[in-house]
């Protein structure tokens, strides 16, 4: 989708991993050196190299690990219409068999995801207020 790629400021020499799901695991670094660029490792499902290995190890999952140095981080605002329809998060349909009192049902708490290496001048995507710096924040990249 052209709008999505434009919002990402797509570069021809760069791969992009875009997630529209909250189902991910962020494992923090155990030792982080503020004088170096932060490192990130993306681990994604992949097709196995050898299909016969699938028969012998049914409990294993083939993953691809991509190791990177982070050059920059920034918040990106996307128009919902630019997200492919099959990737948009939809609200679960309520079943008529569930009798919920809407007036007393609590709204889920939305917490903004904030990697530890974000610069201090970013804005919270939900409140549109500046994010408060944390103890691990980086202010510049070498």
From TrEMBL:
GO molecular function: DNA-binding transcription factor activity, RNA polymerase II-specific; RNA polymerase II cis-regulatory region sequence-specific DNA binding
Keywords, alphabetical: DNA-binding, Nucleus, Transcription, Transcription regulation
InterPro entries membership: ATF_bZIP_TF (IPR051882)
Topology with respect to the bilayer: Single-pass membrane protein
Subcellular location as annotated: Membrane
A GO-annotated cellular component: membrane
Chain segments carrying region Disordered: 82-109
One GO-annotated biological process of the protein: endoplasmic reticulum unfolded protein response
Family statement drawn from the similarity comment of this UniProt entry: Belongs to the bZIP family. ATF subfamily.
Protein name: Uncharacterized protein
Species of the source: Homalodisca liturata
């Amino acid at each position: 989708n052209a709008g999505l790629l434009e919002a990402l400021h797509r570069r021809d020499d760069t791969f992009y991993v875009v997630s529209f799901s909250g189902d991910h695991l962020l494992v923090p670094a155990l030792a982080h050196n503020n004088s170096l660029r932060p490192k990130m490792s993306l681990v994604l499902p992949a097709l196995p190299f050898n299909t016969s290995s699938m028969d012998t190890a049914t409990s294993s999952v083939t993953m691809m690990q991509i190791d990177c140095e982070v050059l920059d981080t920034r918040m990106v605002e996307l128009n919902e219409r630019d997200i492919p329809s099959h990737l948009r998060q939809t609200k679960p349909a309520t079943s008529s068999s569930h009798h919920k009192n809407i007036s007393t049902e609590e709204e889920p708490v939305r917490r903004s995801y904030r990697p530890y290496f974000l610069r201090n001048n970013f804005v919270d995507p939900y409140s549109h207020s500046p994010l408060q710096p944390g103890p691990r924040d980086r202010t510049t990249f070498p």
